Amino acid sequence: MLKFTTLLLILSSLVACEVSNSTTNSMEKKPQDPDKFIISGQIVEKDFIIKNGVSAGFTELYFRASVQDYFIKFCESNITKKELEPFIDNVVTVHAEIRDGDWDICEDDPAEMQSRIGAYLVIKELK
């Protein structure tokens, strides 16, 4: 009887470990598929603030998602700022990609600019 109880205890421990392991694996963050990333959010306009905290006199567009505002990097997007301006303060749905890197450096414009780094949004298509 003692061997049977020990065997049951060992088997139940193994099953519990496997269930715990499969639950952890299913909750892991999977990489985003850039071809299928559709997101809805609000287009907002913000002043460009230089390093000393003063407005530079022009604005930029951001995509307000539920967790944060993402800078929209137009030089990598398939849409222009002018095309998106009519949607300021409105909710839109876009096919997009969230990238991490330099906000102000574009391949076609090698001029040195204020260096801002972090997550930004590249819009592939307005839905």
* Shape type: extended
Largest sheet: 5 strands, mixed, barrel
For this structure, the quaternary state is single chain
Cα-to-Cα separation, first versus last residue = 67 Å
Give the radius of gyration: 24 Å
Low-confidence stretches: 19-27
In round numbers, the mean pLDDT is: 81
User: β content, as a range?
Assistant: 35-45%
Kindly state the percentage of residues in helix: 10-25%
Order of H and E elements: HEEEHEE
Number of helices: 2
Strands, total number: 5
> Reading side by side through the largest sheet, how are the strands ordered?
1-2-3-5-4
Which structural class best describes the helix and strand composition?
alpha+beta
Which characteristics define this entry?
127 residues, alpha+beta, single chain
What is the secondary structure topology, with strand pairs?
Elements (H helix, E strand, L loop, with lengths): L1 H26 L10 E12 L5 E10 L4 E4 L8 H4 L6 E12 L14 E10 L1
Parallel strand pairs: 3-5
Antiparallel strand pairs: 1-2, 1-4, 2-3, 4-5
Structure in words:
The chain is α+β, with helices and mostly antiparallel strands and 127 residues long. The chain has a five-stranded mixed β-barrel with strand order 1-2-3-5-4. It contains two helices and five strands. About 7% of the residues have low confidence.
